[in-house]
Amino acid sequence: MREFANSNVIVLGAGNSIGQAVTTAFLRQGARVIAADGATAALAGLVPEPGQPGTLHHVTVDPSDPLAFMRACDELAGDIDVLVCTAPPIDHVRVLEMPASAMRDIIERELVTPALIMQEAARRMVAKGCGRIVVFCSMSGKTGVHTNVAPFAAAKGGLLAYLRVMAAELAAAGVTVNAVATSLFESQVASLAPDERQELTRGIPVRRFGRADEAAHAALFLASRNAAFITGETLNLSGGRFMD
């Protein structure tokens, strides 16, 4: 029997590579998945596979309006069992060249919006006494060593701190909050030249880039009953490039 059969799962950022993989993984487990993306067009190709046990719903309400977004999710599914927040691809700009307006936009999109949606989802989970929140954060938010992504790294670092506090406050209510920190996944390096890709893999102990399905399996685990004693943690998916 599939653990997530008939569970209600929200996937924020379902239109990106990892978001699609996470959505597919939960559908295969029989979940009712609410797929959301700020750019609704990104969801156009996201459809259930033939014979897939789960059901898929698309939310067209922009996640930047968290209250309206969660109300739309309530209408589609009712109780929320799992919230997974994934991050879209980012633009690379040197810190001294980043316009103030762009910096504010990134912080709003990558920190404030997911934090408010986590808050609304958590309120519903606490009311029923259980729930799982899984947030995907780039390793840049944890280490700060990557260049040209300063506002994004700051936002994700802030989100990691936010979820740890949330995890501590909600643990007794049966709600766990965890993160997955990814580094050098195929979707990030797909446009690079072969020699650049080869050079990058030399710095990864497993000698390859990460796959979206591996990120999806991490989300499934953290959302499962087997992870009930894990909260406030960040799981590194870096092929050994970062260890702690």
List keywords for this structure.
7-stranded parallel β-sheet, Rossmann fold, 244 residues, alpha/beta
How would you characterize the overall build of this protein?
This protein has 244 residues and is of the alpha/beta class. It has one domain: Rossmann fold (3-Layer(aba) Sandwich), CATH 3.40.50.720. It is built from 8 helices and 7 strands. The chain has helices spanning 17-28, 66-77, 100-128, 140-143, 150-170, 186-189, 194-201, 212-223, and strands at residues 8-12, 32-36, 55-59, 82-85, 131-138, 175-182, 234-237. It has a 7-stranded parallel beta sheet, sandwiched between helices. Helix 1 crosses helix 8 (212-223) and helix 3 packs parallel to helix 5. The mean pLDDT is 89.
Summarize the structure.
By secondary structure, the protein is an alpha/beta fold. 42% of the residues lie in helices and 16% in strands.
Strand order of the largest sheet: 3-2-1-4-5-6-7
Q: Total number of helical segments?
A: 8
Number of folding domains? 1
Question: Hey, roughly how much beta strand do the residues contain?
Answer: 15-25%
Oligomeric status: single chain
CATH homologous superfamily assignment = NAD(P)-binding Rossmann-like Domain
The chain-level structural class is: alpha/beta
CATH architecture: 3-Layer(aba) Sandwich
Global morphology: globular
Main beta-sheet annotation? 7 strands, parallel
Unreliable stretches, pLDDT < 50, 5 or more residues?
none
Mean pLDDT: 89
What helical percentage do the residues reach? 40-55%
